[in-house]
Amino acid sequence: MEKNYIVMLRESLEKKLTILNELQILCHKQADILSDEKSEAEAFEKNIEAKEELIEKLEGFDKAFDTLFSHVEKELTENKEAYADEIHRMQDLIREITDKNLNVQFLEKQNYELAKKKFSTVRSKIKKVRRGGKAVTTYYNNMNNLGTDTSQFWDKKH
Predict the structure, then answer these.
(1) C-alpha–C-alpha distance, residues 54 and 106, integer Å
(2) CB within 8 Å of 115: residues ≥ 6 apart
(3) What are 24-58's pLDDT values in tens digits?
(4) What letter does residue 98 receive in the DSSP assignment?
């Protein structure tokens, strides 16, 4: 029975690594979206949603791992030799997970900076559009006022 829990621990770590690989791919895609001036907000939102789903799965695997580990911790420490191969494989997986996690954090930090830059650019474009809209409105209002009888036109005609 304990052997099954230990195999489940290893499999949980393998699945976590797979999810981290997927998360890393999504981080690269997000960087592409943020770097592309023509990208749509919808693509960015879908990417964020996909990443949130993966993060929820990671949290689930973390909880499952902790629960399983509490069941087999005593067996693993008392019979290290019997489970040496599995322990070694899990240690390797934990190192890979740690490296991948650090890489994802680095990519997230880069994406955060890209997002700040992109949103700053969008804000400045919105300001330009607003200024342009105000200028058009002012021009339109001025042109509409030309057809009215103003004292200047009235005095010139009479």
Answers:
(1) 17
(2) 34
(3) 999 999 999 999 888 888 999 999 999 999 999 99
(4) H
Residue type, 14: E
Per-residue CA distances from 12 to 104, 124, 144 (Å) = 19, 47, 72
Domains along the sequence of the chain with CATH: 2-116 (1.20.58)
What is residue 66's DSSP assignment? H
DSSP SS3 for 147: coil
pTM over 0.85: no
Q: Can you read off the two tokens belonging to residue 56?
A: 């929820």
SS3 146: coil
Secondary structure of residue 84 in the 3-state scheme: helix
Which residue bears the tokens 């997970």? 97
pLDDT digits (tens, 9 = 90+) for 85-112: 999 999 999 999 999 999 999 999 999 9
Residue with tokens 């939102």: 45
Among residues 47, 43, 37, 39, which one has the least CA distance to residue 124?
37
Residue 76, sorted as left (phi over 0), alpha (psi -120 to 50) or beta, turns out to be: alpha
Tokens of 38: 């023509």
